[in-house]
Design goal:
Largest sheet: 5 strands, mixed
Number of helices: 8
Number of strands: 14
Shape: elongated
Radius of gyration: 21 Å
Length: 265
């Protein structure tokens, strides 16, 4: 079990959703559930190997079954946790065996138990937020299908330039987003030119917004969240992303001033 696991950004998003169930808060939770990991107490029929970092390695044929709780309405749920501390609130200081999984990994477990288990409940002794399995499937489908921004490959040849024109509203939206997202360290804004051939004239090329995200921990859900903020100001252009620690991002950082930089830790 990862004794340092703490998905603080998901827990804070769930708390905001509990206080205010606006669509924008639900969308952020959905993005985080799709793109970040969560702690799941479970039992297994074969003991895994534990490496020097405390990570568990299971044999391919190991049967893993999440533990179950029953709520006040008699619904059976898998309890999921955003941190070790949240898990201990339910199971005591000694805790239980847990695995840390992403949605791609745990959805097959939920689907196989769909006839008997209603869904999940996150931090049942904390924010106590239930999600039926059908809703989680909807999250997975909609978040992925709506994610127009893409992560550029390391080897793709890109033609980037500094943005032109009146960018005041777009830049203000990005700065505001960076200020309110604790994980963001810096944001860079460029234009990517769609050139079919390198000899094409740049002034005739279609330009897409290209945003470089310097973030404390990689979470592609941040692309979706930024896209939702800036799309109304994107002038109909596509929006593309990469992380600042990619080869592309590192090259941009050497030659471009960020439009937003985190001032305080």
């Amino acid at each position: 079990m990862d004794f340092n696991f703490n998905n603080e950004i998901l827990r804070e998003a769930l708390e905001r959703l509990r206080e205010d169930n606006r669509d924008e808060n639900l969308i952020k939770v959905a993005s985080l559930l799709v793109d970040t990991k969560i702690m799941i107490p479970a039992k297994w029929d074969k003991e895994p190997e534990v490496d020097e970092k405390g990570q568990l390695h299971f044999e391919p044929d190991t049967k893993v079954m999440p533990m179950v709780v029953t709520n006040e309405n008699g619904l059976k749920l898998f309890p999921f946790f955003t941190s070790v501390e949240e898990m201990k609130k339910l199971y005591g200081e000694k805790g239980v065996n847990c695995i840390v999984l992403g949605m791609v990994q745990y959805m097959p477990l939920l689907m196989s138990a769909k006839e008997e288990i209603y869904g999940i409940v996150i931090d049942p002794k904390g924010v106590d937020m239930p999600f039926p399995t059908d809703l989680l499937m909807e999250f997975a489908q909609k978040v992925r299908s709506n994610l127009k921004p893409i992560l550029k490959s390391e080897n793709e040849k890109l033609v980037l330039q500094d943005p032109k024109g009146n960018l005041q509203d777009l830049e203000a939206a990005l700065i505001s987003y960076g200020f309110h997202e604790p994980a963001i360290q810096a944001l860079y804004l460029k234009e990517r030119l769609e050139l079919n051939h390198l000899e094409d004239q740049p002034e005739n090329a279609k330009a897409n917004w290209f945003i470089i995200v310097d973030v404390a921990e990689r979470d592609t859900g941040v692309f979706q969240r930024i896209s939702e903020v800036v799309r109304p100001l994107a002038q109909g252009r596509d929006i593309e992303f990469t992380f600042a620690d990619t080869e592309i991002g590192e090259n941009v950082k050497k030659t471009t001033m960020p439009i937003y930089t985190k001032m305080f830790n």
